[in-house]
Amino acid sequence: MEINQIASFVVRFQLAAIEKETGKKQWRIKVTHVQEERETLFESVEEAMEFMQEMAGEA
Description:
The chain is of the alpha+beta class.
């Protein structure tokens, strides 16, 4: 196990739509893993968190 391992992420939320009936907002979430310069899109915070945990070696 490497002690000085760093995992940095940039997380961006972009409003994709608002449901007319409920007013619920739908978000497009882009997560960038800085060290690998890898961008991935998600529709939920839970999916984004799972991705970050996997990239950080926590899953």
